[in-house]
Amino acid sequence: MKPAGVRIAQIADLHFGRDVPAVAETLLEELREVRPTLIAVCGDLTQTAAEAEFQAASAFLDKLPAPSLIVPGNHDLPGWRFWTRFTRPWRRWRRHIASDPYGAVTYETDGLIAVGVNTARRWTFHHDWSRGRINMRQLTAIGEAFDEAPRDDLRVVIAHHPFLLTDAVRGRGLVGRSSLALRHLRHRADLLLGGHIHLAYSGIVDGLVVSQCGTAVSNRLKGEPNSYNLIDATGDRVTVAIRRWGDDRFETHESTEYARDGHEWSIPGAPAG
Ligand SMILES: [Fe+2]
Ligand SMILES: [Fe+2]
């Protein structure tokens, strides 16, 4: 089932503590079958950042059958435990997940460079602290990694908060400083992967492909089933397939093809907009 190019399995919003074990087990089985080049884990591994939830998330991640790149989400911060939230926000993340919560994490292989950044913040100016933000230091790190990679590599940014919203979820808010990020990443990046909304969709913003997946294995559904996205890239084409949970397995619900000219993306056959 593995194609000639790069294959990314994108999973998000696992929310251990609210996980559905049968879905999690089936997802692992499917990931073994589809043999991705990389598994992008787009944050919210836990529900309340509790010790037991991190242990369960870590045990799940240990079973992933391919290299993974993991970034945190807002639920991976101590929610109302303010003292810990402000003084040691990533203590359990560091203990159980181990990836650096402040720097950019990078995965590179033939034809692919992926950089993950943490967009969750211990506080924000907005009253809704679940909102995230990307900063200039992170954008610089992403840009430098991409600029050093071979020109035609697929360049992927992995984050938790979204760079594109649909009309139905406009009120949720984009990742903070998304306009700055898009200016910085245009013509330099290809794909922006996110979660947080618990709805699956893909689209184009400023010439970049955005892929959002639903909650992979939790019962925190927002009107649609569990899902993950399977992204296949060959040459200058990318297909984002949304794999939704059916009765007892994942099935392709929707598949969208994108094509690039340089690092500028469009949907083949769609009117220029
Ligand atoms: Fe979430
Ligand atoms: Fe979230």
From TrEMBL:
Residues 7-198 form the Calcineurin-like phosphoesterase domain. It holds the Pfam family Metallophos. The keyword Iron applies. One of its GO terms (molecular function) is hydrolase activity. InterPro entries: Calcineurin-like_PHP, CNP_phosphodiesterase-III, Metallo-depent_PP-like. Keywords: Hydrolase, Iron, Metal-binding. Belongs to the cyclic nucleotide phosphodiesterase class-III family. This is 3',5'-cyclic AMP phosphodiesterase CpdA. The lineage of its organism: Bacteria, Bacillati, Actinomycetota, Actinomycetes, Micromonosporales.
